[in-house]
Specification:
Layout lengths: L1 H17 L16 H12 L1 H16 L20 H20 L5 H28 L4 H8 L3 H21 L11
Helix pairs in contact: 1-2, 1-3, 2-3, 2-4, 2-5, 2-7, 3-4, 4-5, 5-6, 5-7
């Protein structure tokens, strides 16, 4: 139990640290950040339940006002802005990514982690992000979904990086890949 809590806290911190990397601001209020790589890694390394808990911990810290999101943002205001759908979507994104890692064991870890990151960390995340942008920006869902296309190239690179990092961890310290453990 203590190890799980430590892993959850560690990955919440990893996502916060990734928020220190400079963001690329887009005209519609949703920045390109490295934090989605952390969301993907939560799922690929921690698994569904622990990965989602790490995200929930980070979102609690954000809600309390700590400026741990890219651009030193934090506080309740971020949950009503253009990024709200993406922030809420981080939880199911990490969960789905982790669930795929837990269930699909027949292929190489790098492939599974990359595909899981694309499905959970891009497709699931974009569904929430587009819905949030549609509401906040007063756009139709197809218009908001079209805006998310700006993120696709970078997020595919992040999914591949998540796959490679997860595979490297699996080779170096197999017991550290909690998404593949039976506990």
């Amino acid at each position: 139990m203590e190890k799980s809590v430590a892993h959850v806290a560690l990955f919440a911190a990893v996502i916060a640290v990734l928020g220190l990397l400079p963001k690329i601001s887009l005209g519609f209020g949703v920045p390109i950040t490295a934090q989605t790589l952390g969301v993907m890694l939560c799922g690929t390394i921690l698994g569904a339940r622990r990965g989602a808990m790490a995200i929930l911990l980070l979102l609690l810290i954000v809600a309390l006002g700590l400026p741990v999101l890219a651009g030193a943002r934090g506080g309740l205001g971020v949950f009503v802005g253009p990024t709200a759908g993406f922030l809420v979507g981080w939880v199911p994104a990490a969960f789905v990514t982790g669930l795929i890692m837990e269930k699909w064991r027949g292929a190489p870890v790098a492939l599974v982690a990359s595909v899981a990151s694309i499905i959970g960390g891009i497709l699931v995340l974009y569904a929430f992000g587009a819905a949030g942008m549609a509401i906040v920006l007063n756009k139709s869902l197809p218009e908001a979904a079209a805006l998310t296309l700006a993120f696709v190239p970078g997020d595919i690179v992040k999914a591949i990086v998540a796959g490679l990092l997860t595979s490297g961890l699996a080779r170096a310290r197999p017991s550290s890949l909690l998404s593949r453990s039976s506990a």
